[in-house]
Amino acid sequence: MSDRFTAACLQLTSAREVEPNIAAVRDLARRARDRGADLIMTPEVTDMLEPRRDAMLAKARLESEHAMLAACRDIARDTGAWFLLGSAVVKLPDDPRVANRSFLIAPDGSIVARYDKIHMFDVDLEQGESYRESKSYRPGQAAVLASLPWGKLGMTICYDLRFADLYRALALGGASFLSIPSAFTVPTGRAHWHVLIRARAIENFCFVFAPAQSGEHANGRKTYGHSLIVAPWGEILAEAEDGSGLLTATIDPARVAEARRAVPSLAHDRPFTSPAANPMAAE
Question: Domain range spanning residue 174?
Answer without folding.
Answer: 5-262
